[in-house]
Amino acid sequence: MGLHIDNEFSLQHLMGTKTSSSIFDNEGKRHEAVELLNKGELKNLKVAFASYVERIIFFSKASGVSTSGIVYSDSKERTHEALIRDEGEVMLSAGAIGSPPLLFLNGVGPLPHLSSHKVSVVSENLDVGKFMADNPCNSINIVVPFAFDPSVGYVVGITKLSVATIVEKFSGPLSSSSLRLVSFIDVKVSPTVRFNYFEDPEDLARCVRGMRLVGDMLKTDAMEGLKFGDLKHSLPRNLFDDASMETFCSSTVTTIWHYHGGCVVEKVVDGDLRVVGTNSLRVVDGSIFNTSSGTNPQATLMMIGRYTGLRMLQERGAAK
Ligand SMILES: Cc1cc2nc3c(=O)[nH]c(=O)nc-3n(C[C@H](O)[C@H](O)[C@H](O)COP(=O)(O)OP(=O)(O)OC[C@H]3O[C@@H](n4cnc5c(N)ncnc54)[C@H](O)[C@@H]3O)c2cc1C
């Protein structure tokens, strides 16, 4: 970075470079999602590290297709079975990029597509892998003439100046896309998905409106006082020139990592998150969203996990 004092790992705000983190609190205690697991019934929990679910084990019964467990491989390529008992169920939480491929590879998807790749069809569903979207994000970086604490940087350089990023993003884009498998054999091969940002003109118009607002904000007296300089991605001088604003939006769009869809509710899963056409298989992750929350989605996702678990316990209690 051109800054020569290396402070190594530190939670302090120090001139030079350092390795930082945002998951430590002021006492240096680390917080992350695993804390939720620690509050669970650990004797009922078995975690397989560095393992991939390869197969969902389906069987037919009078009421339709059911699952009896999954087959997974560990880091040494050994395969194992994890089977459910009694009224147990399989819950897929492989995310928007992981859950649709698992359904495809296990025969839940569009019949012609699966058949053409010699995958036996368990349950036809035309919508697996569809309605995928990502909230488009555009930003500008400005140099602020004072130092402030970094919020998300991991390896950071701290000078008397700071770089501030002003981000504009929106949820519920109208542009969507479909996920495609690259391998119909190996679950470890990542699928491809192109999010088609701004394909729908309304999405581009929303970005232009949002960035105009950012431009207006930068012109306020409060921001003038900061005497900032532009680093890159400068906004067009004329905020009312639609064509240059649209070019700005298209050329600077990035992900904010809130991609979702692929097993959308009411299309691939029902209101109870059960895979349509199956009895004991649910999907509980960001692939079920047709719209991602406007803010960071992790809290919502964790709540959906907990909500679904509690619902399942209630259903079992009622069935007894
Ligand atoms: C760089 C980055 C920064 C982010 N920052 C934030 C933030 O600050 N706050 C926030 O709220 N959200 C943030 N997000 C978004 C958030 O992490 C995601 O929206 C959320 O994790 C999605 O949850 P999920 O359960 O759908 O999937 P994931 O969290 O992606 O979980 C799916 C898991 O399944 C695993 N998997 C996939 N296929 C298989 C398989 N076949 N077998 C076994 N395992 C499999 C994956 O490895 C992964 O661990 C960020 C995302 C990224 C990428």
UniProtKB/TrEMBL annotation:
It holds the Pfam family GMC_oxred_N. Its EC number is 4.1.2.10. InterPro entries: FAD/NAD-bd_sf, GMC_Oxidoreductase-Related, GMC_OxRdtase_N, GMC_OxRtase_C. SUPFAM superfamilies: FAD-linked reductases, C-terminal domain, FAD/NAD(P)-binding domain. It is an enzyme of class 4 (lyase). Keywords: Disulfide bond, FAD, Flavoprotein, Lyase, Signal. Coiled coil: none annotated. Residues 25-126 form the Glucose-methanol-choline oxidoreductase N-terminal domain. Its cofactor is FAD. Residues 173-305 form the Glucose-methanol-choline oxidoreductase C-terminal domain. It catalyses: (R)-mandelonitrile = benzaldehyde + hydrogen cyanide. This is (R)-mandelonitrile lyase. The gene is LOC107414212.
